[in-house]
Amino acid sequence: MPKFFFSSLIICFIFIPVSCTTDTGTESGKIIPPKVDEMEAGNKIARAIINSAIKSAGLDNFDNAKASFYFREKQYTYENKAGAYRYERKFTSENGNDIIDVLTNNGFARLTNGYSTALAEKKARAYSNSVNSVIYFAFLPFRLNDPAVEAKYLAKVDINGKSYHKIKVSFLEEGGGDDFDDIFIYWFDIKNYRMDYLAYEYHTDGGGMRFREAFNARAVNGVTIQDYRNYKPWEKGSIPLDKIEIAFQNEELELLSEIVLENMEIEFE
Predict the structure, then answer these.
(1) Residues 146, 257: one domain?
(2) Residue 20: CA atoms inside 13 Å, Cβ hemisphere, count?
(3) Structural domain span for residue 243
(4) 68-113 residue pLDDT tens
(5) How far, in Å, CA of 47 to CA of 144, rounded?
(6) Can you count the helices (H) and strands (E) in the chain?
(7) Based on the number of CB atoms within 10 Å of its own CB, is 93 exposed (0-12), middle (13-18) or buried (19 or more)?
(8) pLDDT of 146
(9) What angle do CA 245, 198, 220 make, to 5 degrees?
(10) % of the chain surpassing 70 pLDDT
(11) Long-range CB contact pairs, 141-145, < 8 A, 24+
């Protein structure tokens, strides 16, 4: 899972009247659809769509915000102020210990009943990635416009009677996190830029593929929060990632779980 802070070079080649610009395509707080020429789609077009999706979800100022929610009986908190971030996960272990995992710009630490816990490097990395992953998915599409993201416009496709911009996201090795080689695909509603579906291919623990369908969208202090149904192919390796939405419509995916975020609270600085 990619970390939240990245770096890369973006090539500007979308045509916009008057000049070539990296503006997200907004005016007076309103979302203006980017001009998409599917035959010449590329990084600039994908970036414009992603930026519109971030604004549509109310996440364009999430660099200066606080949030708290529960996921699978664990409490997660998010705090970011001008690039200085702090993510926490709090829960009670099976043996009754109070655990607090803390991930910041300076690294990861675990507290057990208020005391610092020494961890092997492998465990510390696994816990750190777990905290980062939950926060990352909870607030998508936030951070999809970070510099280490390489976004590519694939096509306009229909899923269950609705039209979507289909965008592929990969990551540069530098700044892309431990799992920089994971590949993601996102589907954004062409009318309101809502991210209704996402899929990804990962390589850890033997690798695999997932497809997520958003449901229960709701607004929390102006931010769109969604839950997800989490699917996988019936047979590993049977479906290419770029065709997975077709498999979903053909009911060729197995429902694994539901990802439900509870008691979400969000504050802006």
Answers:
(1) yes
(2) 8
(3) 26-61+142-268
(4) 999 999 999 999 998 899 999 999 999 999 999 999 999 999 999 9
(5) 8
(6) 3, 16
(7) exposed
(8) 86
(9) 135
(10) 80
(11) 141/50, 141/53, 141/54, 141/57, 141/59, 141/186, 141/188, 141/195, 142/54, 142/57, 142/59, 142/62, 143/2, 143/4, 144/50, 144/53, 144/54, 144/169, 144/186, 145/47, 145/50, 145/51, 145/54
Residues 124 and 79 in one domain: yes
Residues linked to residue 90 through DSSP beta bridges, in sequence order? 75, 100
pLDDT tens-digit map of 20-35: 333 444 444 555 555 5
Same domain assignment for residues 122 and 180: no
How many structural domains compose the chain? 2
Asked if residue 210 and residue 157 are part of one domain, the reply reads yes
Mean pLDDT value across the chain? 84
Give this prediction's pTM.
0.81
Helix (H) or strand (E) holding 185: strand 183-189
- Does residue 15 form part of some domain? no
Give the residue, 64 or 25, on which the prediction is more confident.
64
